[in-house]
Specification:
about 50% helix; about 15% strand; 15 helices; alpha/beta; 4-stranded antiparallel β-sheet; elongated; 4-stranded parallel β-sheet
């Protein structure tokens, strides 16, 4: 598999440190509010990456953290008169509801920053001992950015440009504007932990370095997240981790593109800010997932009502294909028929195309195209009116579910059932049609339609669905 490595700015063959095993660290949310649609993109994109690697037979250890202590969480707690634990626990639970709705597989490990304070302190102490960090007069601990000669290697920004944009905020006492906080000294009313250099709480960047080191080791295979995290968050992770451990931090870096809303950057001030929960309540979760993977992960996405409606319609086409296939399978007879081996071979070419697309920097857009091509072929070859064998139908259904499953799609299948009274009416109508009693057949059909049961007469028998 080839992936675009942000570190080298080119596609590279993805070769894990240990054959057939992959260690991935994905930056998770800061839990102070519901996740928005921008947060949903890396969550969905890298869930697909994990699914695909596992599909190809690799053992994946997938770590996605929760940042459960942060200025935003503290501010939220102060606003509502609660505490950081109340806020973080609430929004971790809300995240889990949204993640389940988006069909995100649970991470191998979901560490919390506050559960790793000892590891954070150990890294900071190592950086202090090595001279890469210092304690300011106010008790903050900062990283000496310019002491790390490779700073900027991920964002590929010249040091002069980074220095020009660096500022010292009110209350900070730094040796250099480029330095960043590893530890924030205790302030009245804020949560704090004991450390050798004084009470306080960790900075944002150090949390991920500590959790990656504890659960995956000094060097990990792949680190991923949104494009907005490249600088300064991931740049700072590299600096502090490599100076502490003396080895490369992550061998590959993957970053997804931005999401705009109606061709504008999403912003609360512009009134175009949407949470996943808001969108899901109106359109469902699955169209959101579809939107996040319908384009190449590095390309920008433009969210709009029209776009999410298009995604919903595309999913309906995929579901319709599957529903029709299941119906034909239920009425198919055993015994392979002439020409069906050729059909199987043709179906498998779509899987080859799917895999080729995914192997080329996880091109989910082309992979989806392969699924739609398979769906069209299934509709033509096995559709209502044809008489395929049970074996061919089962083969097609297994392949169709296999490929959709890699992308995490078609997970909202509803098994519709009819009560005995409805089934009896359908039986009576079928009998009336046999007797050419068209008046009775039409009357029953109209009665069922009023009860939202829509019938379709096919060579394989009566097909029905419940109209919502």
């Amino acid at each position: 598999m080839k992936i675009f490595n942000t570190l080298s700015r080119q596609k590279e063959e993805f070769i894990p440190l240990k054959e057939e095993e992959v260690k991935i660290y994905a930056c998770g949310p800061t839990v102070y509010n519901y996740i928005h649609i921008g947060n949903a993109r890396p969550i969905c994109v890298f869930d697909v990456l994990r699914r695909y690697l596992e599909y190809r037979g690799m053992k994946v250890t997938y770590v996605q953290n929760f940042t459960d202590i942060d200025d935003k969480i503290i501010n939220k707690a102060n606003e509502e008169g609660s505490d950081y634990l109340t806020v973080s626990k609430r929004y971790i639970q809300e995240y889990q509801i949204d993640a389940k709705g988006l069909n995100i597989r649970e991470a191998t490990i979901h560490p919390l920053a506050t559960e790793n304070i000892d590891e954070i302190i150990l890294i900071i102490q190592t950086l202090l001992d090595k001279g890469y960090a210092y304690t300011a007069e106010n008790g903050d601990v900062y990283f000496r950015t310019l002491k790390f000669n490779e700073y900027g290697k991920l964002s590929h920004q010249p040091l002069e440009e980074l220095q020009a944009g660096a500022r010292i905020s009110v209350g900070e006492i730094k040796e250099d504007p480029m330095d960043f906080a590893l530890w924030k000294a205790a302030k009245p009313g804020e949560p704090m932990w004991e450390a050798p250099w004084g009470k306080g709480r960790p900075g944002w960047h150090i949390e991920c370095s500590a959790m990656a080191k504890r659960y995956l080791g000094d060097t990990i295979d792949l680190h991923c997240g949104g494009q907005d995290l490249i600088f300064p968050h991931h740049e700072n992770e590299i600096a502090q981790s490599e100076c502490c451990n003396g080895v490369p931090f992550a061998r590959y870096w993957m970053h997804n593109g931005y999401i705009n809303v109606d061709n504008q950057k999403m912003s609360k001030s512009l009134g175009n800010f949407f949470t996943v929960r808001d969108v899901a309540e109106q359109y469902g979760y699955e169209p959101i997932r579809y939107l996040m993977i319908a384009s190449h992960y590095r390309s920008p996405i433009n969210y709009s009502v029209e776009m999410i409606q298009q995604c919903k319609a595309a999913l309906e086409r995929l579901y319709t294909c599957r529903d029709n296939l299941v119906f034909v399978l239920e009425n198919a007879q055993p015994g392979e028929l002439p020409g069906e081996e050729e059909a199987k071979a043709r179906f498998l070419t779509y899987r080859d195309h799917f895999i080729n697309a995914m192997e080329d920097d996880m091109n989910t857009a082309d992979a989806l195209s392969s699924i739609f091509e398979l769906a069209r072929d299934i509709n033509t070859t096995l559709g209502v009116g044809n008489h395929p064998s049970k074996e061919l139908c089962e083969f097609a259904l297994h392949l169709y579910d296999e490929l959709n499953g890699v992308l995490g799609l078609l997970y909202n299948r509803k098994e519709q059932s009819l009560d005995e009274e409805i089934e009896e009416l359908i039986r009576q109508r079928t009998e009336a049609r046999k007797q050419k009693d068209w008046a009775t057949a039409d009357r029953i059909r109209d009665e069922l339609k009023e009860r939202h049961v829509v019938l379709e007469d096919t060579p394989q028998g009566v097909k029905w669905h419940i109209e919502e």
